[in-house]
Design goal:
The protein is α/β, with parallel strands linked by helices and 442 residues long. The chain contains 22 helices and eight strands. The protein folds into four domains: 5-118, no CATH class; 123-165, no CATH class; 181-317; 326-437, Rossmann fold (3-Layer(aba) Sandwich). A four-stranded parallel sheet has the order 2-1-3-4, with helices on both faces. The protein has a four-stranded parallel sheet with strand order 6-5-7-8. α12 crosses α22.
Length: 442
């Protein structure tokens, strides 16, 4: 079976958006056919998400096994089914550096970019993904904005979001906080006496944590302060993943360039970058080095080399014999730890190992996708599929546990929100558990 190896590299994924071939539709579609042929011959990914069963049905039932007949209509149908969980990308045996160089999620990020360049991105879609704008407005008007976003069948604002903006009326939207994480950190760090024995970090708060889940940032600051870590919160914008996922490449590039320039000098001066949400961490680690303009590739790679999830940073302290073991001896009993998709995609998640350090605590990991994946799972068009994915891969596993865990933890706050929404159980992040273990008040 030929996988198009004779095509050389000209039709392979073009990494840099500055390369004209990145936006070449014909080159992209030819590359898709090549990769789909390899996927069809392997089929290890059949049960990862709704995308692959549909792909294989198209190949088997419509095209008699001939992937070269896949057309633009098929590709658009498949595009609606890829929500960039990356389960296939990090489990696939044929990802780079293998000569086949398969990366289906990246194909569809590129497809969205091509589509966005050709047809533009609608105002409705831009409103769905502009988390900087929405977060800023909603935080400044909280708690009034939270009343407007409250999930209730008769809430006119939610009905408007459902039918006009495309955010499903049943989707839980975490409450916005008037005091953002950045504002809290600025006030908190004024009185910091840290000398840096635990290192120096630049905090990438992420939109969700900055505007809504500020408790995660507060727990992070409390734990880092206990370890004598010097902390700064540089100017920053959304990582750009929501924009990249819908093909709004101009906005993604603007955010990426701003963030690289904001963090580069700090990293050059010995700071590590600590992220509080796995999707954003994955963007800094994987997307910026591949999509940065030529003059920023080196600093993008340097930032990636010094970027840590907060729990990975604590593990680094452990390896340097600088992690405090002043834990509450009572412990937490049993913790079910949900390993989020984008934590797995980073290939270095250490949350479960950190939680296993806690006294009288037993950790059981659960993998699988909750189907949220940024704003994708919140949208009206995707709601049913999103919940179905969560039920099959995560929710049923937790619901069937006997006995039920004492605590449920997830690296991803959005995944945690989906578990809370469906199972009516409080879900924390690992750093919040660590703060509890240290008995910290924040």
């Amino acid at each position: 079976m030929s996988y198009g190896m004779d095509l050389g590299k000209e039709n392979r994924n073009q990494n840099a958006m500055g390369d004209p071939k990145f936006f070449n539709k014909e080159s992209l579609e030819e590359e898709m056919r090549r990769q789909f042929q390899a996927c069809s011959d392997c089929r290890m990914c059949l049960h990862y998400c709704p995308f692959f069963p549909v792909l294989f049905d198209i190949i088997d039932q419509e095209l008699d096994g001939e992937t070269k007949k896949i057309n633009s209509g098929h590709i658009e149908k498949l595009n609606s089914l890829c929500y960039h969980c990356k389960l296939c990308e990090f489990r696939c045996p044929y990802i780079p550096p293998h000569e086949l160089e398969l990366d289906v999620p990246r194909l569809f990020l590129r497809y969205q970019a091509v589509k966005g360049k050709e047809k533009g991105v609608s105002i409705r879609t831009k409103l769905q993904v502009n988390t900087d704008l929405i977060g800023s407005m909603a935080s400044k008007t909280a708690p009034i904005s939270n009343w407007g976003l409250m999930k209730h069948p008769l809430n006119p604002n939610r009905l408007m979001l459902h039918y006009m903006i495309g955010i499903h009326k049943k989707s839980i939207i975490p409450q916005y906080k008037r005091e953002t994480a950045k504002k809290y950190a600025k006030k908190k760090l004024k009185s910091s006496v840290a000398k840096g024995d635990g290192g120096k970090i630049a905090l990438f708060t992420t939109c969700l944590v900055n505007n809504q889940r500020t408790d995660i940032a507060k727990a992070t600051l409390a734990v880092l302060e206990k370890h004598d870590v010097i902390i700064t919160v540089p100017p920053q914008m959304c990582c750009g993943m929501p924009e990249l996922g819908v093909g709004w490449t101009d906005k993604f590039q603007a955010n990426m360039i701003y963030n690289i320039k904001s963090f580069k000098d700090l990293v050059d001066n010995g700071y590590d970058v600590v992220t509080l949400q796995p999707t954003c961490g994955n963007v800094l680690l994987s997307e910026y080095p591949k999509l940065a303009p030529n003059d920023l590739i080196e600093p993008a790679n340097n930032i990636a080399d010094h970027t840590f999830d907060i729990m990975n940073f604590l593990w680094k302290l452990k390896l340097d014999n600088k992690l405090s073991r002043e834990f509450n001896e009572e412990g937490f009993g049993t913790i079910t730890y949900h390993v989020s998709c984008h934590t797995q995609a980073q290939r270095k998640g250490l949350s479960s190992r950190m939680l296993n350090l806690l006294p009288n605590t037993k950790v059981k990991a659960v993998t699988g996708c909750t189907g949220v994946d940024g704003t994708w799972g919140l949208r009206t068009a995707n709601r049913d599929m999103s919940v179905s994915v969560a039920k099959d891969q995560v929710l049923d596993k937790i619901a069937e546990m006997d006995p039920q865990p004492d605590w449920i933890v997830s690296d991803c706050p959005l995944a945690g929100s989906r578990i809370e929404e469906e199972l009516k159980i409080k879900v924390l992040t690992p750093i919040e558990m660590m703060a509890k273990a240290y008995g910290l008040i924040y």
